[in-house]
Amino acid sequence: MKNKKLKVLQLQKGKNYKKTEKLEFTLETNQVIIKKVFINLYTKAQSIGIKIENDYLLSPNEYKFEEKNLQYLNFDEIFFELLKYKKQKKYTNISIDKNRLNNFVNSQEWYRIEAPKTFFIISNFKDFEKIQSVFISLLKKYLYSFYQYNKNFWEKDFMEYREISEKDANFIDEYNVSIERKEENNDLIERVK
Predict the structure, then answer these.
(1) In which residue ranges of the chain is pLDDT below 70?
(2) Which of 35, 68, 156, 166 would you label with 192, given CA atoms 20 to 30 Å apart?
(3) Are 120 and 69 within 8 A, CB to CB?
(4) Dihedral sign, CA of 176, 179, 181, 183?
(5) How high is the pLDDT of residue 166?
(6) Structural contact between residues 57 and 106, judged by C-beta atoms closer than 8 angstroms
(7) Measured between alpha carbons, how far is residue 34 from residues 74, 124, 144 in Å?
(8) pTM summary value
(9) 155: exposed, middle or buried (C-beta count within 10 Å: 0-12, 13-18, 19+)?
């Protein structure tokens, strides 16, 4: 029997999505992108003292923002949070236009929220901060999904099978093992040394 080598699917050498492709952050209602833009706020609601209906696990309340919820959004703050997230994720090839953020405000198709009916009741100005925080979280999830979708779509034409060599990054030369120092572990500790 021949000595078969392990092959893996990898991006062709020299192909780099970040250096080759420039991407504009836009609203797309592609189901592959938007199905991942989802937040369940029931746990958060419980932690801040909102009473939860007993059947929320079986039939959670799905919520969509209304115009009154979004009227006091601070677009400068939202824009800078997205830029910070983009930098953290090292999405160097995507540009975000602050003026396009209105498209996300005007659409309810790109996200899903599960929350108690009382979660988004506005009784004071601090409630708008909670709404903005959720809106930013949704935009970050959308940005992540949007970026990954476009990256994978571009890379699919440049994938190839390659044999793994002993120097491949998938192999680890050394492991660290932690064992609790108890008398019953003494034999195991001696064998690992």
Answers:
(1) 1-2, 54-57, 170, 193
(2) 166
(3) yes
(4) negative
(5) 74
(6) no
(7) 23, 31, 10
(8) 0.80
(9) middle
